[in-house]
């Protein structure tokens, strides 16, 4: 890949349905940077766990499955991919079975330690390769990349997030009920915020952006302005003269 206009790491955190994936991908694409969806990595490991039919209460067995999983995450924002071995699992990891189990699997300390190491390797390689990467998840600014040049924490009302999630599921051909999705959003919030290791929370130096009343373009404008104010977009030599 060519060198990007972004220098360093932009961490985008927040609960489900705040628009993290869409905005992070478009932000990365706009700067010619790389992109990493850490949530997809946890979902892929969860799929591997479900396929292994291990007890979700057996943390040792879950960690063993995670260690064996051949997880490969692509970093092209135009075509983000996630594979288990050679199998493309991008669609399957968004299904209801994985959604119902991912909080339990991602709360296992051994799984988080394993994936955080993997994520840091991907981030370091991307910065060395192209200069910049946008990383989204729930613990990027607090745990995965605490030294990120820009940390953003996206929020939105639970109702707005449920409407977005339901619309996404419907567009993807999955059964979608706003009431069921709202209950799931609230359940995920409780589990993600209360887990013992790397709980969902805003980093002290993160900029909070409420997306409840903003469309994607509006959020993207705010994040682009933040990138430029932080000096993460180098000014070309000719522009300095």
Automatic annotation (TrEMBL):
<protein>
    <recommendedName>
        <fullName>Cytidylate kinase</fullName>
        <ecNumber>2.7.4.25</ecNumber>
    </recommendedName>
</protein>
<keyword id="KW-0547">Nucleotide-binding</keyword>
<dbReference type="InterPro" id="IPR011994">
    <property type="entry name" value="Cytidylate_kinase_dom"/>
</dbReference>
<keyword id="KW-0067">ATP-binding</keyword>
<keyword id="KW-0418">Kinase</keyword>
<keyword id="KW-0808">Transferase</keyword>
<feature type="binding site">
    <location>
        <begin position="14"/>
        <end position="22"/>
    </location>
    <ligand>
        <name>ATP</name>
    </ligand>
</feature>
<dbReference type="Pfam" id="PF02224">
    <property type="entry name" value="Cytidylate_kin"/>
</dbReference>
<dbReference type="GO" id="GO:0016301">
    <property type="term" value="F:kinase activity"/>
</dbReference>
<feature type="domain" description="Cytidylate kinase">
    <location>
        <begin position="10"/>
        <end position="228"/>
    </location>
</feature>
<dbReference type="InterPro" id="IPR003136">
    <property type="entry name" value="Cytidylate_kin"/>
</dbReference>
<keyword id="KW-0963">Cytoplasm</keyword>
<dbReference type="InterPro" id="IPR027417">
    <property type="entry name" value="P-loop_NTPase"/>
</dbReference>
<comment type="similarity">
    <text>Belongs to the cytidylate kinase family. Type 1 subfamily.</text>
</comment>
